Amino acid sequence: MKFGNLVIVGRPNVGKSTLLNALVKQKVAIMSDKPQTTRTRVLGVGHFPTAQLAILDTPGLHKPKHQLNRKMVRTALDSLPDADIVYVVMDANTPPGAGDRFVMEQVVTAAQSRTYAGIFLLLNKVDEVGKARLLPLIDQYRQVYDWTEIVPISAKSGVNIDRLVDLTIACLSEEVQPCYDEDFLTDQSMRQMAAEMVREKVLHHTHAELPYSVAVLLEEFIEEPSRAHIRATIFVEKASQKPIIIGKKGQRLKTIGTEARLDMEKTFGMKVFLELWVKVREDWRDNESLLVDLGY
Ligand SMILES: Nc1nc2c(ncn2[C@@H]2O[C@H](COP(=O)(O)OP(=O)(O)O)[C@@H](O)[C@H]2O)c(=O)[nH]1
Ligand SMILES: [Mg+2]
User: Under CATH, which architecture does the 190-293 domain have?
Assistant: First the structure.
């Protein structure tokens, strides 16, 4: 049996969390089409016949403006030194831009102070890109750095994921004891996952700038023998954002609650009674003690 620590990095929205879920074959990280969905690092463990892979999903690397964003970027960069293997994820729909170059620079810099077992450049979302556009893109990335492999993948539809796993395991040389039990999937607590599931549904049902303004605080998680009673507060920054989340006659909040509850029941394997509140907290993104309470 082999064991390896992997870290997934890339700019926001390239599909890092989708890739983690594809690798562990379970939804452990929330995903959305809004940038900066992932705010903390999430560990998922992939169990394969010949290896166990401990995979860290990280917040997207970008130029930070708020205290929260600075923490997010630091979280991603701090994960680099401890990994055996780095996955650098790029969106195959676009040629490398400033954001991508920033990500590659960080990885190349990290690789100067330690030796990785592998640094993979992953071109994600190839389900949306024709071969004719893919080949020149691969050439472009090949000129940037001597990557261990450049692998075109689709995290969403599963293209090349098995091949990626094989190539990854091939890089791990020592036969070592696996670190986690064979049913261990993630280091997140049920409380964290529940809060994240609520936030994912808020992201799905709202638009534009609102996602950045939303945080979810889990106030109560009471586990009874066959059901859980969960109470969570959705924080927004402006009074005008509250009615957006609640919707006409409370309809949007109801939908958010129902969808989040169904996700929780599936993941936790028990009935869930979910109570949601919406509150305005202007400064939560720069309030250090609230950021700690929120788990950031
Ligand atoms: N077409 C396509 N969309 C993808 C793929 N992987 C992720 N996405 C979408 O890209 C968006 C961002 O995904 P997410 O995993 O949250 O990105 P992250 O910010 O890098 O973690 C979501 O809408 C995903 O459904 C893929 O392989 N193909
Ligand atoms: Mg993510």
Answer: 2-Layer Sandwich (3.30)
Q: CA 240, 246, 247 angle in degrees (round to 5)?
A: 90
What single DSSP character describes residue 275? E
Q: Return the ∠ at Cα 261 (arms to 256 and 264), rounded to 5°.
A: 130
User: Quick check: CB of 156 below 6 Å from ligand 1?
Assistant: yes
pLDDT (tens digit per residue) in 112-170: 999 999 999 999 999 999 989 999 999 999 999 999 999 999 999 999 999 999 999 99
Q: How far is the C-alpha of 21 from the C-alpha of 11, rounded, in Å?
A: 18
Q: Would you tell me how many other CB atoms lie within 10 Å of the CB of residue 210?
A: 19
CATH architecture of the region 2-171:
3-Layer(aba) Sandwich (3.40)
Nearest one of 272, 276, 231, 274 to 250, comparing CA atoms: 276
The pLDDT, as a whole number, for residue 115 is: 94
Domain map (residue ranges) of the chain: 2-171, 190-293
Q: How far is the CA of 18 from the centre of ligand 1 (A)?
A: 6
Residue 152 near ligand 1, beta carbon < 6 Å: no
Q: What is the pLDDT of residues 83-92, one digit of tens each?
A: 999 999 999 9
d(CA 286, CA 235): 13
What is the mean pLDDT of the segment spanning 28-33? Answer: 91
Residue 162 class from Cβ within 10 Å (0-12 exposed, 13-18 middle, 19+ buried)?
exposed
> What's the CA-to-centroid distance between 213 and ligand 1, angstroms?
21
Q: Give me ligand 2 centre to Cα 136, in Å.
A: 27
Question: Does the C-beta of 160 come closer than 6 Å to ligand 1?
Answer: no
Among 209-218, 248-257, 268-277, the least confident range: 209-218
pLDDT average, residue stretch 239-263 = 96
Full strand arrangement of the beta sheet holding 2-9 = 42-48, 51-57, 2-9, 85-91, 118-124, 149-152
Paired with 86 in beta bridges are 7, 119
